[in-house]
Amino acid sequence: MIYYVVVSTLMFFAGVYGFVTRHNLLAILISLELMLNAVDINFVVFNRYLFPGQLEGFFFTLFAVAIAAAETAIAIAIIINIYRNIRNINVDNVDKMKY
Amino acid sequence: MEQVANQVIFFLLSAIIVVCSIMAVTSRRILRAATYLLFVLFATAGYYFQLDYHFLGAVQVTIYAGGILVLFVFAILLTSKLGEKSDRISSRKRAWGLLAAVLGAAICGYTLLTHDFFPSQFAQGGELDMKTVGHALMGMDKYQYLLPFEAISVLLLACIIGGIMIARKR
Amino acid sequence: MEYSYIILLLPMLMFITLGLCGHKMSHRTAGLLGTSGLFIITILSYIVAAQYFMQPRVDGIYPTVTPYHFEWLRFTEWLHIDLGIMLDPISVMMLVVITTVSSMVHLYSLGYMHGEVGFQRYYAFLSLFTFSMLGLVVATNIFQMYIFWELVGVSSYLLIGFYYTRQSAVAASKKAFIVTRFADLGFLLGILLLSYYTKTFDFATLTSGDVSLVGTTEGKTFLGISVASWAMALVFMGGAGKSAMFPLHIWLPDAMEGPTPVSALIHAATMVVAGVFLVARLFPVYVTTPEVLTFITVIGAVTALYAAVVACVQTDIKRVLAFSTISQIAFMMVALGVTTEMNGHGALGYMASMFHLFTHAMFKALLFLGAGAIIHAVHSNEMSEMGGLRKYMPITHITFLIACLAIAGIPPFSGFFSKDEILAAAFEKSAFWGVWMSLVAGLTAFYMFRLYFNIFWGKEAHHEHTPHEAPKTMSIPLVFLALVTCFAGFIPFGHFVTASGLSYTIHLNWTVAATSICIAVVAIALATWLYMKPNDKPARMAESLSSLHRWAYHRFYIDEVYMFVTHKIIFRYISTPIAWFDRHVVDGTMNLMATLTQSASYHIRGLQSGRLQSYAVVFLLGAMIIAAIVLYCI
Amino acid sequence: MNFLSLFVLIPLLMMAGLALSRNMKQIRTVAVIGSSLQLVFAFIVLFMFLGERAAGNTAEMLFVADTVWYAPLGIHYTVGVDGVSVAMLLLSAIVVFAGVFASWKIDPLPKEFFLWLILLSIGVFGFFISINLFTMFMYYEIALIPMYLLIGVWGSGNKTYSAMKLTLMLMGGSALLLIGILGIYFHSSADGNLTMNILEIAKNNAIPHEMQYYLFPLTFVGFGVLGAMFPFHTWSPDGHASAPTAVSMLHAGVLMKLGGYGCFRVAMYLMPWATTELSWIFLILTGISVVYGAFSACVQTDLKYINAYSSVSHCGLVLFALLMWNTTAMTGAVLQMLSHGLMTALFFALIGMIYGRTHTRDIREMGGLMKIMPFLSVAYVIAGLASLGLPGLSGFVAEMTVFVGSFQWDDTFRRVFTIVACTSIVITAVYILRVVGKLLYGKVQNEHHRELTDAAWFERLSAITLIVGVAAIGMAPGWISNLISDSMSVISERILQYI
Question: Distance (Å) from the C-alpha of residue A16 to the closest C-alpha of chain C?
Answer without folding.
Answer: 9
